[in-house]
Amino acid sequence: MRNILCFLAVSIICFGMSAFSYAQDLKTIYNFDAWLGKAGEIKQEPPLDLMPLPGWVLIGKTTGDDGTTYTFGETQDKPLIVVTVKAHAAVADAQTGLLNILSQFSMILLKAETQGLKFGDVGFAMSEGDVITFIAFVRNNVTVVIKNISPDNPKSVKDIAGQIDLMI
């Protein structure tokens, strides 16, 4: 029994050190300490269901630990994009939240600015060919993730990202 407990203790310590190392590596890779907006004011989560987003119809809304997720389409029966918005208690929490989102990818995402885009204090984007299909950014204490969910008909999420950024 003592051997099992020792093994578990060592495993937990090693896993914790590994997770810490990975988080530090991500901070270095994404130049986290140089991200803008660290002293931004606290904002409210924009209620996207109450704000007009030209060209998009709201299909659904759910709320969870990750924030509020909205599904939009060109019509009620054609969901095309999902937007998740979360207002954190502090700017540092939001920036760490964005870093956690980036950690879910098996590749390093490019900063939006390197692709000629500007969203939030810092943002990242991914494209399918010439179509921007994923954008994640942080503005002050609010994280925003916008992704295309229509594999057969990829739509750019660039315009809606700009509209949401202006709302924050």
- Describe the largest sheet: 7 strands, antiparallel
Strand content: 25-35%
Q: What order do the strands of the largest sheet run in, or round the barrel if closed?
A: 1-2-3-7-6-5-4
**Poorly predicted spans:** 1-20
Structural class: alpha+beta
How far apart the termini lie comes to 55 Å
The overall pLDDT average reads: 87
What radius of gyration results from the CA coordinates? 18 Å
Characterization of this structure:
With 168 residues, this protein is an alpha+beta fold. Helices cover 30% and strands 29% of the residues. It has three helices and seven strands; from the N terminus they run αβββαββββα. Strands 1-2-3-7-6-5-4 form a seven-stranded antiparallel sheet, with helices on both faces. It is globular. The termini are far apart.
Give a short synopsis of this structure.
The chain is built from three helices and seven strands; from the N terminus they run αβββαββββα. It is α+β, with helices and mostly antiparallel strands and 168 residues long. Strand 1 (57-64) and strand 2 form a beta hairpin.
Features:
single chain; 168 residues; alpha+beta; 7-stranded antiparallel sheet; 29% strand
Layout of helices and strands, plus pairs?
Elements: H1 2-29, E1 57-64, E2 67-73, E3 79-87, H2 91-102, E4 110-111, E5 122-128, E6 131-139, E7 142-148, H3 158-167
Antiparallel strand pairs: 1-2, 2-3, 3-7, 4-5, 5-6, 6-7
